[in-house]
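Morning. Coffee machine broken again, so started the prediction first thing and wrote up yesterday's gels while waiting. Chain of 174 residues, entered below exactly as on the submission form.
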Amino acid sequence: MAKKAETRTLAFEVGQSVVYPAHGVGRITAVEKQTVAGMALEVYVVAFDQDKMILRVPTNRAEASGMRALAGSKLVDDALKTLGGKARIKRTMWSRRAQEYEAKINSGDLISIAEVVRDLHRGDDQPEQSYSERQLYESALDRMARELAAVENIDKGKAMEKLAKSLAKKKIAA
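Came back before lunch.
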């Protein structure tokens, strides 16, 4: 049984960029064996440079925790199209909507994050956002920009410009 576990292939490789739902884009720096509470565990060591954070995810729980490879170009295109769509704001209390937006951001799903950015984006002609609205918007925008930058191998500034262009199309369509 132990030999079978050693010969299985890992879902992710050292050096690969991955998305962890609660933290965004990180890079796998190593696969280590650790003993925790008397049990031997194999873990991915994921570094999040922007947050200066290291996360250790058990290899057998990586996919169950929502860790995934970067989005493909088709998914990125769909997310950019989502940004250009019409905002869908529910008529519920802000606290309920804020919880839903937070859940979408932490889901790690690029389309869901794009929906949050689209719904919370305010044009120059629209009223000012509340502090909590702006925090959620900036969090979603940052998460999306980091993944876009990693997928297209560009810096975060260029990714932000690309997102701004997609959001500008929304203004024309509205």
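DSSP finds six helices and five strands in the chain. Going to sketch it on the whiteboard this afternoon.
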